[in-house]
Amino acid sequence: MIKKLLIITGGFLSVVVLAFAIFTAFILVGTYQIDEEKLIMHNASVLVDGDGEIITNLFMENREVVAVEDIPEHVAHAFVAIEDVRFYTHHGIDIRAIGRALYRDILAGAKVEGGSTITQQLAKNMFLSHEKAWLRKTNEVLIAMNLERRYSKDEILAMYLNQVYFGHGAYGIEAAAHLYFNKSVNDLTVSEGAMLAAVVNAPGTYSPFENIENSKERRDLVLTVMAKEGYITTEEANAYQAEEIVTDRQERQIDESLYTYVDMVMDEALERYGISHEELLTGGYRIEVPIDQTLQQQTYKALQNERYFPAESNDAQAAMMFMDVESGGILAVQGGRDYVRRGLNRVYTKRSPASTFKPLAVYAPALETGRYTPYSMLTDELFQYNNQWIPENYTHTYTGEMTMYDAIKESANAPAVWLLNEMGVDQSLMYLRKFGFQLPDRDLHIALGGLEEGVSPYEMTAAYRALAHEGKRVRPYVIKAIYDQNGRIVGDAGPVQTDVVSPQTAWSMTQMLTGVVTDGTGQSDIQTKTAVAGKTGTQQHPLVEGANSDVWFVGYTPEVVGAVWMGYDSATETSYFAGGSNYPTMLFQEMVNKLPHEQVTFKQPEGTIDLVGSKAMRAIEGLTATYSLGGEGLVSVALSWEGEEDSGIEWRVYTIDGERRELVAESLTVPHFSEGRWNPFSIPHYQVVAYDPIANVEGAASEVVVPSFSF
Fold it and tell me: What residue intervals traverse the membrane (predicted)?
């Protein structure tokens, strides 16, 4: 029996010796491989504005990796004192600590104390899963000892402090310093560093947010051990222990007002720079964005405010986007009133643009042909097209003809469709492609925004920029520049512009769209601090009489271009917008009033021709005609009418004799005219017409008058 026992014991010892030999060989030759990629920690990316001010962090784990030289000695000493007092002298494992822990576990009859070093904790957290396996502890020791062979103590300590969890979603010492004290790690005091060292042992137990008494007790213990190990004096420890724990909680959660903007940043990083969402959340990128933080907040608050919506439709949805005219940088964007992360972004959702499409589909292309001007007379009558469609004006009134200027200003439908029919759909589609649209539509419904798929607020904002800035379209962006964690630039937006229409067409459209706001459908009670040009749009509901499904305002100031849409995601008999385009118009104007304005009037591009005000081109009023004996003939005829001299407008005088209409005077710059006639029995009727010599177009004619005798 004894012999058998000796054989078993000897065999067991042989196995132990062999295992120890293999274990020692692994350590000595350093063959246990360390996967360097696992030492690359998830590092939060940061969004900053143009001034470098931090807007928010993007992270999978809220961590900001800091270099070893950025961690103060007194902070490092606090962790060494409480977590691994012999850190600077052992080689990865602390035999004395293991023995002490084992002794206390035996006395307690359970595991009460750990013997892991800081290096072992780093090895366990970075390289091993939480799955319990019989070789797990062995692997932990092997990795720890190889880490010690490969890296300096300071490097290991820095990796540990950047990796460890501090509770409340904060990973690493830098994120913890911001969470608990709203400061960077290099600004931490001795007592603050000691408190953070206290937390890591059990964040749920020692967090000052959860239990201030436990937190202070543990912090004081850290300070006591620091004094015992000579990192601070006993007097200093006593002084720090007398301090109350004062925190400044700063949990890094993305502000709800930023949800749409942040999601668009993530999408743009993938689409333009090939950076996946996961990589952006873990790669420590620095992303400069063109956001206006005040406007972003204001747009969010506005969409929560029911006063911007009709009482009967206070549950309607909305989306808006504002972009810098010069650069194309998106200043503010909201994808819905209740937008959630990675949800439906209504800025990208295609809708019927209604009359906001007229400037892009009809009027700008018509001006580009050279056959039409802002004062060209358009037919304003009911016509049937393709033997089935009769476009109607929303006022149900028709004047026979009106200028392009007035047709835009009053948002008349009949002249827009008539002009598109005259110009040709192909001409419209060619320019719509330049404006950035790819449409399957090929019929006259384009004139009124009646599209098969619709267009989005994002697309409309980008398109209107061409009208706002010399006929050039720019690619909108939310990432101005992006840098990797080493400060190297990954990419930048750069100026990406394409010619769409001529500067003259853009300037003419701007002046006409300004009239929409001052005298047309875009009027509101809001007094804007800057000039505004834009167009309203109202799409009638297909199922409910007198209701609307989509209402718009798309427009611009000298510095900002944007779009506001309101309506419902799906048009039903119970889901309809009870108001008109005055709601998005008012919202647009109030939002641009929130911005500072360096330029409050539109700047005319060089080489373009200014338009004369539309009022000067309207029908002449106050025309009187008298005749008297003598003068240059047997009879003299004198005409006078209302009009301003030096206004840039000229007048033409016509005689009307039955069916004959003859021009008898032109280039008149004063509002009166006289002529002599030799036949007193043949005095014709007269008519006066305003004429714009720059645009080479006549305005509406005055009434025809018959001269009366003057005594």
Answer: 12-32
